[in-house]
Write a structure and sequence with these properties.
Blueprint: E1 54-58, H1 68-82, E2 86-89, H2 94-103, E3 108-110, H3 113-123, E4 126-132, E5 138-139, E6 141-146, E7 161-164, H4 170-182, H5 187-190, E8 193-196, H6 200-208, E9 214-218, H7 219-228, H8 230-233, E10 236-241, E11 245-246, E12 250-252, H9 258-270, H10 275-283, E13 288-290, H11 298-307
Parallel strand pairs: 1-2, 1-3, 7-8, 7-9
Antiparallel strand pairs: 3-12, 4-12, 4-13, 5-11, 6-9, 6-10
Helix pairs in contact: 1-10, 2-3, 4-11
Length: 311
Amino acid sequence: MVLKRLRILIIIGFVLISMAGLISCSREQEPKKIIFEEDIVLEAEEELPEKNPIRIAIGSMMTPKEGYAYYKHLLNYIGEKMGRPVKLIDREKYAEIIALLKTGYLDIAFVCSKPYVDGHKEFGLELLVVPQVNGKTEYYSYIIVPVDSPVKTFEELRGKTFAFTDPGSNTGKLVPAHMLFKMNETPDSFFKEYIFTYDHDKSIKAVAKKIVDGASVDSLIWDYYNKFNPELTSKTKIILKSPPYGITPVVVPPGLDPEIKNKLRKIFLDIHKDEEGKKILEGMMIDKFVAGNDASYNSIRGIIASMEPRK
C-alpha cells in the first residue's frame, strides 16, 4: 500500500519537520524523516593536521544524544591511550558506516547488532568488544505508544501510524518487521503509514509528542532517558518487550593492523580500571566493556534467515 502523506500539526518552534525529508514512504521512495529542533547534531571533527588519525564512527549509541559528551570523552580517552589523534566520522545511516568499514576507511565503529551481522557475513566484519550494561550484554526492542493511548498490544496498532528507526536497525526495524512477518503482514499492509526517524531519540520523542501512534526503540536508549530525563519517557508506555538480543557492539574491519586492534581492545577492556574511565562509563550507563561472542548474534541471524524467500 502506497502511504499517504503524514500530516502533522505541531506548535511552530517546538518541532521542525524537514520538508526535504517529507517524502511518501513506498517501495520506490525514501521514507519520511523528522527532525526535532532541540536535537543535538553529531558533528565530525575537522580535518586533522596530524597524520594517521584513528577514524572512529558512532553509528549506534548506548545513550541518547544528550549523552554525546561522554562519547567525546571516550574518543579523547582512546586517542590519549593510543598516542594518536582521533577523527570522528559522522554518518547518519548504518549502511554508510558499514560501507566505510568495508573499504577499510574506518578503524573502529559503534554499530547496531544487525549491521554487525550483515557486515560479518558480507566481508568478515570483526567484533572487538561489547558493552556490559547492568551486568548483561544484551538488550531489547521496546514497542512504545503515548502514555494515554488506548493501545495495549502490538496487534492494536493496525491502521495506525508508526515510527521505525533505521532500515538496518535490529530493535528499530528488524524485530517489529519479523513480528509482522509472523502475522502474514508487512509494514505497508499493516500500518496506515510509517516513517523512518534514523534515530531512537527521535522515535521516542515522536511518540511522546504524539506525532505517531507507536514506535519500536532500543531499550538502552529508552532506559537511559527514563533515568535521566523521565519527563520524556513518562509520556510513553511500553506495550511489548522483545526477547533479548546480543547488545550493540564495537567493531573493526577485517584488515585492521593486528597491533592496532589489540591495543584498542585492551583500552576498552581496561577503561573501567581507572577513575577517568569510570566517570566516562558511568555517564554512558555502561558497567564496562568485555570481550564479545559472535554466537550472541545467532538469534538475529535466525530472524533474518526466517524472513528470506524460500527457494
